[in-house]
Amino acid sequence: MSKAVANLQAAQQRAMAIRPKVGGFPYLAETLRSAGVSKSTWSLPSCESRYDTLEGPVVIQGTSLISGAADVPRFDQDALIAAIRRDQSGDADFPEFLASAWRAGVIGWEVDLNERTVTYYGCGDEEYVERYPAVEIVS
């Protein structure tokens, strides 16, 4: 296992141990940022994620949301915002968020951990940008 993979996995485990169920994403993001991750890029429906780290880029292949060919849903910003709010409130787990984002027409997103923004993309050049708050991680 490379140093980049080991560092990312350790940061993800730390983040999952400390993040609250409600509003936990900023804790995950700050833990990753503190471990040297500058950007996280997700692709849907494949659920592939790439992390740009000081140690080098790392890719993780998750379980795809579809099998075979499928129509890409129309981008629906209101449905996306509703999915984000359900996730933030703890009313949905991450797999549910992924499925809801896909149904809202999201084909990917990019988290800029230094700027604290998440930019969601549709296939017709649609974008929705959301800022998340800074948090302090207490060791």
Oligomeric status: single chain
How much beta, percentage-wise? 15-25%
The value of Rg in angstroms is: 15 Å
Question: What is the count of β-strands?
Answer: 6
How many distinct helices?
4
Question: What is the end-to-end distance?
Answer: 26 Å
Strand order in the sheet with the most strands: 3-2-1-4-5-6
| Morphology | globular
Q: Could you tell me the mean pLDDT?
A: 95
Percent in helix: 25-40%
Unreliable stretches: none
Short descriptors:
139 residues; 6 strands; six-stranded antiparallel sheet; 35% helix; globular; alpha+beta
Would you mind describing this structure in some detail?
There is one protein chain. Strands 3-2-1-4-5-6 form a 6-stranded antiparallel β-sheet. It has helices at residues 3-18, 25-34, 77-88, 94-103, and strands at residues 37-43, 48-53, 58-61, 108-112, 117-121, 127-131. The longest helix has 16 residues, at 3-18. It starts with a helix and ends in an 8-residue tail after the last strand. 35% of the residues lie in helices and 23% in strands. The chain contains 4 helices and 6 strands; from the N terminus they run H-H-E-E-E-H-H-E-E-E. The chain is an alpha+beta fold and 139 residues long. The model has no long low-confidence stretch (mean pLDDT 95). A hairpin with a 5-residue loop joins strand 5 and strand 6. The chain is globular.
